[in-house]
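User: Structure please.
Assistant: Input sequence and predicted structure:
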Amino acid sequence: MSGFKEPSFADRQKAAIEAKKNILTKFKSQPGPDDPAVKARAAEREAQAAARAKAKLVRDAEKAAQKIREAEEAAEAAARMAREKEEAAAAEVALEAEKKAARDARYAARKKRK
């Protein structure tokens, strides 16, 4: 088995030139901007972008509608709580009036006995 042969400067230079040629031929073989396939891909990307934008508008509209519904529900809940507080306050006032009437009746009965 022979040992590793160190590439000379000429070999390295030749390999670099060959690599540059390969890169250049690969670049030249790519289709240009006016190629129908390139135009078709660009049109497809634009159509996909338009579809994404349309879907985003629909999602934004749904989110706005959801926020409006949540705000309406919160307003209804606040109104319901206010109404319940008013009813509780009215019941408390009625209870206090009833207690006062009972207390006055007891006081009048006690005064009548004396």
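Residues 36-113 form the longest helix (78 residues).
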